[in-house]
Amino acid sequence: MLELNGIDKSFGGVHAVRNVSLTLAAGEVRGLIGPNGAGKSTLVNLISGLLVPTAGTITLEGQPITRQSAHERARKGIARTFQNLRVFPSLSVEQNIDVARYAGRGAPLPEAAIDEFGLRRKLTQRANALSYGDQRRLEIVRGLALRPKVLMLDEPAAGMNEEETEALGRALTWVQREAECALFVIDHDLKFIMNLCERITVLDMGAIIAEGTPEEVTKNPKVVTAYLGEDAGTDA
Ligand SMILES: Nc1ncnc2c1ncn2[C@@H]1O[C@H](COP(=O)(O)OP(=O)(O)OP(=O)(O)O)[C@@H](O)[C@H]1O
């Protein structure tokens, strides 16, 4: 459905993404992990259109989108959340969701999404009165209300405690079953990613060093060394 071919991105002397090729199937839940500075956010920015690659191509359902604006890509079904929250602070929860519904691709948001993400009783509250966790959940529901083909989540569990993270995992599993969109999820919480994702892509210094099931990736010595750190090998 979404295909990246030989994607490269340099910022001056920093080669942030190196020759990345990957394919995301419709409805797939893919994790993207890697150490700080591995290039994860840059890759998401390249897919969503905030950045243009130095080389390589991106296609959505066979159509090239490499040079299209973020706005055009959003209309075609690529949605995302940000590491830093971007809800409309002075609008209510419901208004935030409605803005996305109108901007979206037409299909209605399954009402149950509002329940799954625990926002039903908070619909009339202003977004800036919500807890941090609720603002993060609102961002996801807003992304879903666009009815995307792929929703990219940049560190959705950041700042959440274990209980909240588990609930988020359950809600995202519901999304996978009910919302008919693929998820591309960056997070540093490995347990969260391993429980949620069928396949995981591992980036290190801008390049893909492994891809596979959570089990395959965890056992990969390159991942153990690069991602978990030099010391992790001695514990494995
Ligand atoms: N706009 C930019 N200008 C210059 N360098 C950048 C820019 N954006 C990212 N970089 C550099 O590109 C590399 C990859 O950064 P990126 O933020 O994509 O990594 P990341 O894997 O998302 O890291 P983290 O887990 O810390 O969020 C880093 O060396 C970073 O400093």
Please describe what this structure looks like:
The N and C termini lie far apart (36 Å). Strands 6-7-8-3-9-10 form a six-stranded mixed beta sheet, sandwiched between helices. A four-stranded antiparallel beta sheet has the order 2-1-4-5, with helices on one face. A hairpin with a 2-residue loop joins strand 9 (199-204) and strand 10. The chain has one domain (2-86, 147-235): P-loop containing nucleotide triphosphate hydrolases (Rossmann fold, 3-Layer(aba) Sandwich), CATH 3.40.50.300. With 236 residues, it is an alpha/beta fold. It contains ten helices and ten strands. Helix 3 runs parallel beside helix 5. It is 36% helix and 25% strand. It has helices spanning 40-48, 70-76, 93-103, 112-116, 132-145, 162-178, 190-196, 214-219, 221-226, 232-235; strands at 2-11, 14-24, 29-33, 55-60, 63-64, 78-80, 150-154, 182-186, 199-204, 207-212. Bound molecules: adenosine-5'-triphosphate. Residues 2-230 form the ABC transporter domain. Pfam families: ABC_tran, BCA_ABC_TP_C. Keywords: ATP-binding, Nucleotide-binding, Transport. This is High-affinity branched-chain amino acid transport ATP-binding protein.
